[in-house]
Design goal:
The chain is 73% helix and 0% strand. With 63 residues, it is an all-alpha fold.
Length: 63
C-alpha cells in the first residue's frame, strides 16, 4: 500500500464513521414522520393498492 494515500483513506473512513449515524437518524425521522402521506387514504387509493397486490400475487403464484 502506498504510504501517501494512507491519510486519505483514514479521512474517508473517519468521515463515514461520523456521517453514518447522521444519515441513519435522518432516514429514520423521514420514515416515521409521515409527512408524505395523508391521514386517511382515499377509496381510490385503497382500490388501486388492492389491484396492484392482486396482480403481484397472481404473477408469482404457481399455475
Amino acid at each position: 500500500m502506498d504510504k501517501t494515500s494512507g491519510w486519505m483513506q483514514a479521512v474517508v473512513f473517519n468521515s463515514l464513521l461520523v456521517l453514518m449515524p447522521v444519515i441513519a437518524a435522518q432516514s429514520l425521522s423521514m420514515a416515521f414522520s409521515g409527512e408524505g402521506f395523508s391521514d386517511t387514504p382515499t377509496i381510490e387509493a385503497i382500490d388501486q393498492t388492492r389491484r396492484n397486490m392482486d396482480e403481484s400475487f397472481a404473477s408469482i403464484s404457481p399455475r
